[in-house]
Amino acid sequence: MQQPSRSRTAAEIDTQPDCWRRAAGAGAEADGLPEPGERVAVTGCGTSWFMAQAYAALREAAGQGETDAFPASEFPRARAYDRVVAITRSGTTTEVLDLLAALRDRTRTLALTAAPATPVRTVAETVAALDWADEESVVQTRFATTALAFLRAGLEARGPLPAGVRPVAEAAAHAESAVAEPLPPAVLAAGQWTFLGAGWAYGLAQEAALKMREAAGAWTEAYPAMEYRHGPVSITAPGRVAWILGPSPAGLAADVIRAGGTLLADGSRLDPMADLIRAQRLAVAVAESKDQNPDRPRGLTRSVVLS
To answer: Rounded to whole angstroms, what are the CA distances from 37 to 27, 64, 174?
Structure first.
């Protein structure tokens, strides 16, 4: 039986339903969010980049405007955008600060941060402070999903959501289940995990895999769901998991089972962002099963500040 975690990361994971509810109200009324029809780019580093990917796909699917996502270090600065949204938990990440400084006086910018009294306030036009979702753990969990909930709420306030995408309030209700229900034993016992997602859920699949690598040093991969057949299926085998976040494309579940892998596909039951919570919990459980501290992963710091 899985034992309750004593880590700070686990405690922060459990607070996400309340964080998302607060984000739903804040995002619906916030200044500086993209308006329908604007050409927008979203940026960040690591986890924040994956949240940017998810939001960009959601915004385009909602018909609110062309939306790209880039890691801050690879942002195409010569391109013209009406607005750039940057996600930075610490407010000190060098690549994000350099980008925002370069865009100042050229492009409207919005920074989402957990630490508004940091250098990001001097380079972003508008700062959305999500300090109530800040974390003590090095790995990001609740800040990242709260930032995405905040952006989702902004989409809801500006027009209908894409078909099949739930309001943030409903996602928060799903999160209550995700923090409470036991993880499947076969998923806990596996030796390899592949996360799959289509549309906006692909960014969440990327983040699920990163969480497993960061917190537990685990062998994980992530792909767009329909790319699974184009190579990744070759590593599927007994004792390995294929986890589909969001709706499963026709025939994909059968392909996993045919290859002998363990399938986890609850897209019809759980919002993909809530399903990500279960992957976060898995990362903590796997880390602790190997006597590793999920709060302080090897080689990682809270923010990457370059000299």
So the answer is: 18, 6, 31
